[in-house]
């Protein structure tokens, strides 16, 4: 209850939660809400402008594309792909990064130095370039896309968790557990891990927004989500050629990306302020 009370006291957080809830609901209810299947074509209504009159032939609330496909339906089904890929990437990257950071910080010594040098080398590469190279090498598919996006995000978790572990492992309750002969793995997972989850949750929220933009960028370049699956990034790419004559083809997918990323960032900022009182004091 305290969590939701704090959420309701922040207008930005409420706005972010509302926008994100609308898109999540649209993704879940897409088969019920969407007027057409995302791949269904109707050449009679090709490039029809947005219209709220669904009784007229070829009309659609957000217009139709160059093949007569309903833009609103494709955005709804595209939200399924975008949110699912982004969430899966954040989860996979978070699990790998937290595990690596926990091991690196707790073990220390040479393994810690090697892992941190690997992290530094990866962070030195532009993430977009790294994703392009890996996807081009392994081939575009949803599974490969999730793996690539997770590959670009695990380093952030690893560095943050390592720093938290280094600060915790010399605390009194950890030293006491060592003194009584507790198993090192038990100390790491039962005593240290629960204390580093809060910053991980904040990072995961902000990473979700970055991954959504990166997935849309890769799809825009044609190496992300492949047809027949609808993708907001690919819809943007397809609408480039019609920007002067059919503005809705690129405008509505672009607005969808902007609104989802904005909502996630608003929630991430609120979580950071809520879970770290020092951040809230600095802002005040």
Describe what you observe in this structure.
This protein is an all-alpha fold. It has one domain (28-283): MetI-like fold (Orthogonal Bundle). 73% of the residues lie in helices and 0% in strands. It contains 13 helices and no strands. The two termini are 24 Å apart.
The CATH fourth-level homologous superfamily: MetI-like
What is the CATH architecture annotation?
A: Orthogonal Bundle
From the helix content, strand content and strand pairing, which structural class follows? mainly alpha
Q: Provide the CATH top-level class.
A: Mainly Alpha
Distance separating the two termini: 24 Å
* Unreliable parts: 280-284
Radius of gyration: 22 Å
Give average pLDDT, whole number.
86
Shape: elongated
Give the secondary structure arrangement, pairings included:
Layout: H1 2-8, H2 11-28, H3 30-33, H4 71-107, H5 109-124, H6 127-138, H7 142-151, H8 154-168, H9 172-179, H10 184-220, H11 232-239, H12 248-275, H13 277-283
Summary, kept brief:
With 284 residues, this protein is mainly α. The chain has helices at residues 2-8, 11-28, 30-33, 71-107, 109-124, 127-138, 142-151, 154-168, 172-179, 184-220, 232-239, 248-275, 277-283. It has 13 helices and no strands.
